[in-house]
Design a protein that fits this description.
GO terms for molecular function: ATP binding; phosphatidylinositol binding; protein serine/threonine kinase activity; RNA binding; structural constituent of ribosome. Keywords: ATP-binding, DNA damage, DNA repair, Kinase, Meiosis, Nucleotide-binding, Phosphoprotein, Serine/threonine-protein kinase, Transferase. Residues 160-430 form the Protein kinase domain. By secondary structure, the chain is α+β, with helices and mostly antiparallel strands. It has five domains: 15-123, 2-Layer Sandwich (PX Domain), CATH 3.30.1520; 128-415, Transferase(Phosphotransferase), domain 1; 427-569 and 587-600 and 622-641 and 653-701, OB fold (Dihydrolipoamide Acetyltransferase, E2P), CATH 2.40.50; 712-891 and 951-993, P-loop containing nucleotide triphosphate hydrolases (Rossmann fold); 997-1193, no CATH class. Helices cover 36% and strands 18% of the residues. It contains 38 helices and 34 strands. The strands form nine sheets. It has a five-stranded antiparallel sheet with strand order 5-6-7-9-8. Strand 8 (235-240) and strand 9 (244-250) form a beta hairpin. The longest helix is centred in the C-terminal third of the chain and has 25 residues, at 1092-1116. It is elongated, with a radius of gyration of 45 Å. The N and C termini lie far apart (125 Å).
């Protein structure tokens, strides 16, 4: 495009045309370019446009002016776009289109049309005030030279040896014009003193033709004033020849190739924030100096910034400077570099020196992120971005940088940072904050703690690059000392850390605490925040994961630990030395790298760092490296467990967040536990991806709040049953699970499930607070549903899938830790709650062995192969298991394998003691088969084993069928209106409240538990060879405490201990057979509870069983009569209720079923100190009644 002459904008409309035979065809790129000639008044220029640009303008105008009915030639999808006839028709259509646009005033003044025709840029290429007559120009140019060389009027080019070209360029740069070479910069050595200079050579003819005299004069004036500022290049003198002008300038470190800031930025892509801050501060100082001289720079960009031999910046190239612009003056010249133009320049609005602050923000953005803020390859799109697109902050910048960029890149000039007063760093504010830091450290005892911590570093043999100090900071106390400092701590923790670091360094040097600390960078300060304000901006809900890049302020979050790595090492700090021996950084502690939040190991230690003074490579001094501990933890919202509890109602996706635990925080978290974490978000850069993570600052255990109240229905029931210690829990269990089974069925199982729920607590630290439950049944479907329903009442419930991982799994870490990531299985995720295993028949033998091992040790052992996960040696880690396991065993599997369903010995006559013993052995064999596929060792590992069978046969099946059908036909309608009705929410509140109760054992309950354990261990050890472990006492205590809590009492009474003994005895009998204490198979629920008579009858039966247990303890526990007081009045005599052995009488048939056994009294056999010689093992629950009668007759 030919150069445009300067002109004034005319009020008339432009005249446009597309002449024939001026198309430029590029067949390689397959498009045609049309020449559009524009005439406005006396001015004429032309632009080249493709059809695609016409089409884009057409689509824009069609939406804004639909009534104009604009048209352009249609696109051609098939055929040759270069046919002459097609080109001719398209050119004619485009000509009519553009002519119609410029003929309409509203369309002609549309911004896109003016940009399309370059009307604004060509009409306002430069200030009108900058036009001069050619004669005046020549006089002005000579005057300039004479003023510049009044000391060196005799200088000439032969005084220099011109070594090489180190730069070239032009004046009055505009993105829409073709520029001619105006000047060259040479590295030259002056002959008489052999000093090096940068000599700028300008062509007079080109200057006159291009009318660049004003720009040269502006640069000359600025150069003459720059000698007083260290960050502006200085002019020594100037001279001229017939055709050239020469400016002798400072030579900066070898020329623009090696000292150009742009060169380093291209090589390194981005600068670390401290380095960028250093450069920007010096550039701001230089700009402020120019503004104080009423000079606007207008062309700030990395290409115009040099670095000297000490690493300081030098600003050069003042060709676009504008003089005489004070704080209130403006100019309108359209000039600068497209990527750094301010919005007001693009809008052709008057502007002042605030355009330099916009350029400064653009340069800072490019230093931090590698590209200007609104960069695009399409210049027009880039201009649109500058004018309208909001600033988007990329990851990796601190909140201070974020705030600074927002202020500098404000699109509204009057509100831009620096618009009211020049942008300068006011040290008064910094010093005030440091003084406040000192006051806070003095008041909070931080200085005293700093002095104590320094004592550990005074070992003369301990020499490190950095020294770490942890300072506890209470934000509330800091705000009281200085609100500005408090805001800095909460909104800019990295900036606050720098303030504390500076004050601590001054304190250490002033008080001579550590002589080995020489520079501030050697002090590594870690601020430990005690808490955060309870406001939404300081709280992060893991359900609503952050989607944007905001300021990295500290936040508080709560969640569940689902995975973690083992503790590894990371680099806290390292010392680097310059390889250039002549550089001052080749010794000392000038280059110290300290770990920053969210930074990877390569960000702290790598081999491509360069010296900030001489740009030479840096080499690490390995002996000064400081290592610390690091651990990665995956935290997820606790609601994610709903997916594993089989009660998730809808589909959700939960995202975990990675926590970095460092140094003293390592091993402070455990898998499966809930924690509240205070941390600082950070972006971990692992090219080409970026990971959002959190650097943990403090970690505390956390428990969610649950409703601790009892519903009015249960409160009313508690009052109604206050006369009996057993009735409340009986009714609660009787009506439990009505969504699955009718009332009165599986009462023993329901009570056991409730006891396990009550005793299993989220804050349980010892395994004896849990109740593991194994249910043996012939109907796994209904019981599985009942147990699943019960699990929904737990504070945390996980239903394990047979195909999933039960305990722990391993994967390779993806965050550069170089170790294995340990993921929690179902058991660890259920910490403090219930882990439901389902039917054990679905597991293979190796998995059953693993379950048995965990039940016995309450520990999961994870083996980490070293070679697979990058370790030097194999590792073995242990994790405690704190949950209750629920499992099912199908008893019908054993019956099918045995090939018989009944015992042919039943109903036969028994004529001798030998035959009785043979019959007992046969009944014990049947009892062994009822355990199903569960090995004996695994059954022993479970704390409580419950056998469930249909006690009334077809009646139970019919009742269950009617119950299920009624629920399906009439959902939500009460099925049993004459009975107590308790909702699921009522049970949930009851369990949650009972879990919080603190109970203690009464002396009577403690004596019953201890006496039963001693007597049972003696009986079963001598008669059956079964050892009663100490775990039995823990089971008895847990059962008694759970029953006490379920009854909403605070002290465990003897009645609670009786329930515990009955459940435990039934469980042991099911596993190992009957002992001298024989109780009915359904001792806890011996009769139907449908009415008051049933409750009264149950109370009477339990009273009798209470006495039976006391007699058993008196008979087989030595010294029990001195510790256990019998409720009945027999003291010295033989305990009441003990029946003397009579003659052997055995009925020819034995009736089975609890329907005929409800009134049967449990008895013990033998005299005090004697043990029955019947070696019965385990008996079927359907045959224990026969066993009782046999034992009555055995003596």
């Amino acid at each position: 495009m030919p150069a445009a002459t300067k002109m004034e904008e005319q009020p008339g409309l432009p005249n446009v045309s597309i002449p024939c035979h001026n198309e430029q065809r590029d067949k390689k790129k397959r498009y045609t370019v049309y020449k559009v000639i524009v005439n406005v008044g006396q001015q004429e220029w032309f632009v080249f446009r493709r059809y695609a640009e016409f089409d884009k303008l057409y689509n824009t105008l069609r939406k804004q002016f639909p009534s104009m009915n604009l048209k352009i030639p249609a696109k051609r999808i098939f055929g040759d776009n270069f046919e002459p006839e097609f080109i001719k028709q398209r050119r004619a259509g485009l000509h009519e289109f553009i002519k119609r646009i410029v003929s309409h005033p509203q369309l002609c003044n549309q911004p896109d049309v003016r940009a399309f025709l370059l009307m604004d840029k060509m009409q306002n290429f430069s200030d009108a005030s900058e036009d001069e007559d050619d004669k005046v120009i020549h006089i002005f140019l000579h005057a300039l030279v004479l003023m510049c060389c009044h000391f060196y009027f005799s200088a000439k080019p032969t005084d220099f040896d011109f070594l090489k070209v180190i730069g070239k360029g032009s004046f009055g740069k505009c993105s829409t014009c073709f520029l001619f070479l105006v000047m060259q910069v040479f590295l030259a050595k002056r002959k008489h003193d052999e000093k090096y200079y940068a000599v700028k050579v300008l062509q007079k003819k080109v200057i006159l033709n291009r009318k660049e005299q004003k720009h040269i004069m502006a640069e000359r004036n600025v150069l003459l004033k720059n000698v007083k500022h260290p960050f502006l290049v200085g002019l020594h003198y100037s001279f001229q020849t017939t055709d050239k002008l020469y400016f002798v300038l400072d030579f900066v470190n070898g020329g623009e190739v090696s000292s150009l800031l742009f060169f380093h930025l291209q090589k390194e892509r981005t600068f670390p924030e401290p380095r960028a801050k250093f450069y920007i501060a010096e550039i701001a100082s230089a700009l402020g100096y120019l503004h104080s001289l009423n000079i606007v720079y207008r062309d700030l960009k990395p290409e115009n910034i040099l670095l000297d031999h000490e690493g300081h910046i030098i600003l050069t190239d003042f060709g676009l400077c504008k003089e005489g612009i004070s704080q209130t003056d403006t100019t309108t010249t359209f000039c600068g570099t497209p990527e750094y133009l301010a919005p007001e320049v693009l809008r052709k609005q008057p502007y002042d020196n605030t355009v330099d602050w916009w350029c400064l923000g653009s340069v800072l953005y490019e230093m931090l992120f590698g590209l200007p803020p609104f960069y695009s390859r399409d210049t027009h799109e880039m201009y649109e971005n500058i004018l309208h697109k909001p600033l988007v902050m990329r990851p990796g910048a601190s909140s201070t940088a974020w705030s600074l960029l927002q202020g500098l890149l404000e699109k509204d000039g009057p509100h831009r940072l620096g618009s009211r007063d020049d942008f300068v760093i006011k040290m008064a504010g910094i010093l005030s904050l440091k003084e406040s830091v000192l006051v806070y450290l003095d008041k909070s005892g931080g200085l005293q703690k700093l002095a104590e911590d320094c004592k550990t570093y005074n070992d003369p043999q301990q020499i490190e690059a950095v020294y770490r100090f942890c300072i506890s900071v209470n934000p509330s106390d800091v705000i009281e000392v200085d609100p500005v400092l408090g805001d800095c701590v909460l909104c800019d923790p990295i900036g606050a850390t720098a303030l504390f670091q500076s004050v601590c360094f001054l304190a250490i040097k002033t008080l001579s605490l550590v002589e080995k600390i020489h520079t501030e960078s050697q002090v590594n300060v870690i601020l430990k925040l005690t808490h955060l304000p309870p406001f939404p901006e300081y709280t992060l809900d893991l359900c609503s994961f952050p989607r944007g890049y905001g300021p990295m302020r500290p936040v508080t979050m709560e969640g569940l630990v689902i995975a973690m790595t083992r503790v590894t090492k990371y680099t806290q700090g390292a010392r680097f030395l310059c390889i250039n021996d002549d550089c001052s950084c080749s010794t000392g502690f000038h280059h110290i790298r300290v770990h920053a939040p969210g930074a990877t190991e390569s960000a702290t230690v790598r081999n491509n760092f360069t010296c900030m003074i001489c740009s030479s490579p840096l080499k690490e001094d390995v002996k000064f490296r400081v290592l610390g501990d690091k651990q990665l933890v995956e935290l997820i919202h606790v609601k994610a467990l709903n997916v594993l509890s089989a009660h998730q109602q809808s589909s959700f996706r939960y995202q975990s967040v990675t926590l970095f635990l460092r140094d003293e925080l390592c091993n402070s978290m455990r898998i499966g536990q809930l924690y509240r974490v205070l941390g600082i978000p950070a972006h971990v850069h692992q090219w080409p991806s970026i990971t959002w993570s959190v650097e943990a600052n403090s970690v505390q255990p956390w428990e969610p709040e649950y409703p601790h109240k009892v519903s009015a229905s249960f409160q009313e029931l508690l009052k109604a049953t206050a006369g009996s210690p057993w009735r409340f829990s009986a009714i609660v269990a009787h009506y439990f699970g009505l969504d699955v089974a009718p009332p009165g069925t599986y009462n023993t199982l329901k009570l056991s499930l409730l006891l396990s729920l009550v005793q299993t607590r989220a804050d349980a630290k010892d395994t004896h607070h849990n109740l593991d439950l194994l249910v043996v049944t012939t109907d796994t479907l209904i019981l599985d549903r009942l147990m699943t329903y019960s699990m929904s009442l737990a504070c945390r419930g996980v239903r394990h899938q047979a195909s999933g991982e039960m305990f722990a799994s391993l994967s390779r870490d993806e965050h550069g830790a170089g170790t294995a990531n340990i993921h929690a299985g179902s058991a660890l995720l259920a910490t403090g709650g219930i882990c439901m295993l389902g039917d054990l028949g679905c597991y293979k033998k190796d998995r059953l062995d693993a379950i048995q091992s965990v039940l016995e040790s309450s520990t999961v052992v994870v083996f980490i192969p070293g070679k697979k996960y990058g370790e030097d040696a194999d590792q073995q880690l242990s994790f405690p298991v704190h949950c209750s396991f629920w499992a099912l065993a199908d008893a019908t599997d054993a019956s099918r394998r045995s090939g018989r369903a009944d015992c042919t010995l039943l109903g036969t006559a028994v004529n001798s003691i030998l035959e009785i013993r043979q019959l007992l052995d046969a009944l014990s064999l049947l009892s062994e088969q009822e355990m199903g596929p569960v090995p004996m060792q695994l059954a022993d590992a479970f704390g409580l084993v419950i056998q469930c069978r249909d006690t009334v046969g077809e009646q139970a099946l019919l009742a269950q069928t009617i119950h299920t059908l009624q629920q399906a036909v009439q959902p939500g309608k009460p099925l049993y209106p004459s009975c107590w009705e308790f909702s699921t929410q009522d049970y949930h509140e009851l369990v949650a409240h009972a879990q919080t109760l603190q109970v203690e054992l009464s002396p009577g309950a403690e004596k019953i538990i201890h006496g039963y354990y001693m007597a049972s261990r003696r009986v079963r050890t001598q008669s059956q060879g079964v050892k009663m472990s100490v775990a039995s006492i823990k089971l008895l205590i847990s059962l008694a405490e759970a029953h006490c809590k379920l009854c909403l009492r605070s002290q465990v009474q003897e009645e609670d201990a009786v329930i515990a003994v009955l459940l435990c005895e039934n469980s042991v009998t099911l596993k190992h057979g009957a002992s001298a204490l024989v109780v009915p198979p359904d001792a806890v629920f011996p009769c139907d509870l449908g009415d008051v008579d049933g409750l009264h009858k149950r109370d009477k039966t339990l009273d009798e069983l209470h006495q039976t247990i006391l007699h058993f303890i008196y008979a087989y526990a030595p010294g029990a009569d001195a510790r256990v007081s019998c409720r009945r009045a027999s003291s010295a005599a033989e305990p009441a209720g003990l029946e003397r052995p009579g003659p052997l009488k055995l009925p020819t048939t034995v009736r089975t079923g609890t329907g005929t056994r409800t009134g049967c009294r449990a008895v013990i056999h033998g005299r005090p100190g004697a043990i029955s010689t019947v070696h019965s093992k385990r008996l079927s629950s359907s045959h224990r009644g026969a066993l009782t009668d046999l034992k009555n007759c055995i003596r």
